[in-house]
Amino acid sequence: MARDTDPPQSYEQRTADFWDSWPSLWPYVPGRTGVCPHCMTGVQFQEPRTETFTWLGRLVGESSPRRPLRSPPQDLLGIISATCPICYSVIVSMRSSSRSEPWLLWPWAIQRAAPPEDLPAEIVRDYQEAAAVLSVSTRASAALSRRCLQSVLRSAGKVKPSRIYDEIEEAIKSLPPYIAKDLHGLRELGNFGAHPTKSTDTEEIVDVEVGEAEWTLNILDLLFDYYYAKPEISKKHRRAISEKLRAAGRPALPGDEDAE
User: Fold this and answer.
1) Tens of pLDDT, residues 10-20
2) Residue 135 burial (C-beta neighbours within 10 Å; 0-12, 13-18, 19+)
3) For 234-250, b where at least 16 C-beta lie within 10 A, e where not — what string?
4) What whole-number distance in Å separates Cα of residue 38 and Cα of residue 40?
5) What's this model's pTM, rounded to 2 decimal places?
6) Residue 184 to residue 109: CA distance in whole angstroms
7) Fewer CB atoms inside 10 A, N or C side of the chain?
């Protein structure tokens, strides 16, 4: 325990502790793995190969890939960059010692795969808005993503409308294990059970855990693929086979008899 007579922590020690405490769920750090926000490829991020200068001075370079800046005296402002080994684009993140989660400086918005064409318009709108504001406000992004998640579980998953905590519990019983485990993990990370606002008023803007907002978007991608994209692909394949069967004078596949 620090005493009043203890000397104040040096700036060097403060900056060392600041970098050591960079959130472990933030992927855009050299050596860590994640999805590149430029090309949407899973990679292990590398040290930047370029030097970056701003009006604040030299931020990163080969000898110093991360350099803390003083922003008012009681705060530390850190900027870190990494490079994607696939598209060679640079990802720049900023973090303040007074804020729990970093935010992206570049790219401003994370690129995401286009949602399936047959997705309901209101779900598409919430999803795209959640992705657009992710780098600006994780709280706003998470609120939109939670509402989007609840809409998907109700419309495609056919769960009984309730608290989102209970809707997830019902949905994971019929979902593939890889999605069910992620949904359960998200529910635990976000502490939905103990956070009544998150569980009942899903669109309310409340504090979120580090990584919660982006993980929700990633899980939505999995649900879109499972509930919408794959069934449509399967339907198109069946119709193509039925057309070939009819052309050969044979009956169509069961369930496709009336398909044109």
Assistant:
1) 767 777 777 77
2) buried
3) eeeebeeebeeeeeeee
4) 6
5) 0.62
6) 27
7) N
